[in-house]
Amino acid sequence: MTIERIQGTDGIRGIVRLAEDCSGSDPISVFLHEAVLTEEFFELYTYAYCQELLEADFASANDLAVIGWDPRDMSGSFNHSAIRGIRKAGLTAVVVDILPTPAISLYQLHVGAACAFVLTASHNPADQNGIKIFIGHSNLKLFPEDDKRLTQRCLSFNFENLRSAPLIGELRNDHAAARKLFIEFMADPQNHWLNKDSLAGAKIIVDAANGAFSPLIEDLLNYESADYIFTNCDPARGINVRSGVADLEGVSSISADEIENGLFSGYETLEKMLAVGREQKETLLNNSGQVLGFVFDGDGDRCFLLSYDPFQDCVLVVGGDAQAFFQAKLLQQNYSWNQGPLFVNTVESDLEAGRAVQQIGFETMQCAVGDKWILWQACFYDWQAKREFYLNKIAASEFRILQEQVRTRLEQMVQSTKFDALSATTTFMSLEKWVSNNIGDELVNSAYDHVCQQQNNIFAIGSEESGHVITLAKMNFGHVNRPVFIGNGLKCALNSLAAIQALRSAKNTPEFFEWLKCPFPSGFQKSLPVYYVDKSLLDEGSVLRTELEELLLANLNWPEMEVEIVKCQEEPEMLLLNVLKYGLPVAAVFVRNSGTEDKLSLYLRGRKELEVRLESLAEKIYPFLLLSFKNKNSPMAQAEQLVLLRLKDGAKQAIDLSFEQFAKISLNRLLHEMSSRQQLIKQEGDTWSITETGRICLNHTERSE
Questions:
Q1: How far apart are the two ends of the chain, measured CA to CA in Å?
Q2: Helix, strand, coil share (%) of the chain residues, nearest 5
């Protein structure tokens, strides 16, 4: 079987293990046959990408490659191996150590590096790690064509040659400088919208997910006037363990009982929210004070807001869609554009989020899942704004011809769906280089200053429901500001709070908390994951994909509606069906492989009035996915079946579900993914029992055997 691409939505990530604990002879075979990333793989991967940049003349010997990480690699084995790969390729490894992803990508821009590597698995469990790559100058992440080239380079490489290669690139440690830059960047009032005194009296519980924000979050927030309580700032407790955003996805409110006795028992942040909220309850009922939470993911590029509701004695979860809507309303209130500003969200978002921002004056665009596609739109429209600025200043025919060639190349890339971040970056740079060489740097700097004014850049905001919200920031390069677009969980949190404070009424009321929970009439949303899958089964042309498509079409035969199968430009592998009524979209149903986890998911989005129909569809489609797409060779899938078998005849405690043959598997992770994610089992007190869905899967397996 030909392997085109080993990466997912955002780089590559997976279970990690030292090479000495694996049976394969080289890192590629271990990855392909055991689905494990070794420290040798990290070395190969960074080496291969640096070679890619050198051979493309995007980088030269001793150019800089910034590298940093989240704290999950406690031994440093993977981090140090990735550094070796950079140095063996001949680039200078600029180590910034443990920092959140936005700080690492920002520092890359600051030092003019050829690229940046972030070693993280984001929200994934602690037994996983991975690599994100940012390209210099544009700060874009890798697109599918970049991934394919890098994959082929890795697959064709003889690792034995790399083992003995010398360290020819230099090494330097810039942790202190990168840390200082990020703190100063976040303290700059042009990079978030919150006034210093606007949080006076607020109680804020900050959850760093035991991740990359842990060592510096207190320094980042010490200039604000709120009263902070910091939780999950100890990486030794395990990154993303009962912390961070992952377990809050798809949740709009959490009851006191769920926190004290149920699914969210043992979540320190939620327990603190509840305790502090109850302490402040009388005050909250009678004025505009708030008990709030910031919850980050492991690498710090996204955030959920929490708010204690004293009227319902519960904790509200404000996800990406709601945060983006609040921020959009404040932008529209504060700025005036010559044309409708652009709001970008992904196919995972509530369909009603787009309609809501349209009603307040935004143009909307939907893209594939992944903040890299939002960053692409931000980068593209930033370039468009600079291009228009140059066209108004430069009359030379040579420039006019060049800009038309650049525009054509970019359009061809989009139309052909062959998205290539390195090529796009080089193309953007060609126009700027011509201006610098033929007119001078002063005009280039003027263009940057121009697009740093919010109203001059049509891209206003981009968001994912998962907590990525991206807006314009500014970075000072000497005497000139440059626009910066990065996923930054802290910026998102501060901007969302600024928007809520500016838009809200003065006093707490039940209506205020309902508005906070649902700022626009929400539609129906449901996401149903299937873990431990064989992702190739969803490939275009596969038998199972055809069966799934036929099943979806048969069950979407709704009166007065038509269904269209859509090929997403950015992610053609996704199976996406749009439901239209009188030519207008009213629902979307899609199945896609996760690019960050070992799973695929069924997504259902639609207007509220279609809830019953969409729920009925889910009942028919989800069991088919559970029964058909599991990877029978996966140890996780095998362990899952073993747990179901042991629960077949009655409830058991966790200790009775352990297994010697899968000693390397985390039982806690497995039980979590089987219960809260797939709902195959459920916990009652200190015992576990099988659900009806779990029994269907077990019976099917037993019959097939």
A1: 27
A2: 45, 20, 35
Looking at this protein, which amino acid is placed at residue 674?
A: M
What phi and psi values does residue 347 have, to the nearest 5 degrees? -65, -15
Cα separation, 615 vs 602, whole angstroms: 12
Domain ranges of the chain: 12-174, 188-318+492-517, 338-487, 524-625, 635-704
pLDDT given for residue 702 in this prediction: 55
**pLDDT tens-digit map of 564-602:** 998 887 887 899 999 999 988 899 999 999 877 789 999
If you classify domain 188-318+492-517 with CATH, what class do you get?
alpha beta
> How many CB atoms within 10 Å of residue 21?
10
Tell me what pLDDT residue 109 has: 96
d(CA 295, CA 280): 21
Count of positions (residues) in the chain = 705
CA distance linking residue 157 with residue 112, whole number of Å: 29
DSSP string, 559-613: TT-EEEEE--SS-TTSEEEEEEETTEEEEEEEEEE-SSSSEEEEEEEE-GGGHHH
Q: Please name the fold of domain 12-174.
A: Alpha-D-Glucose-1,6-Bisphosphate; Chain A, domain 3 (3.40.120)
Q: Which amino acid is at 493?
A: A
If one looks up domain 524-625 in CATH, what number appears?
A: 3.30.310
Predicted confidence at residue 11, as pLDDT, reads 92
Helix or strand (DSSP H, E) at 295? strand 291-296
Contacts of 517 (CB under 8 A, 6+ apart): 252, 253, 309, 316, 318, 322
Task: Kindly list the distances between the CA atom of residue 524 and the CA atoms of 40, 107, 482, 588, in Å, as whole numbers in the listed order.
Answer: 45, 40, 40, 10
Task: List, for the chain, all residue ranges whose pLDDT scores fall below the cut of 50.
Answer: none
What 8-state DSSP symbol labels residue 96? E
Residue in 200, 211, 203 with CA at minimum distance from that of residue 274:
203
Residue 704 is predicted with a pLDDT of 56
Q: What is the pLDDT at residue 595? A: 76
CA distance 27 to 32: 9
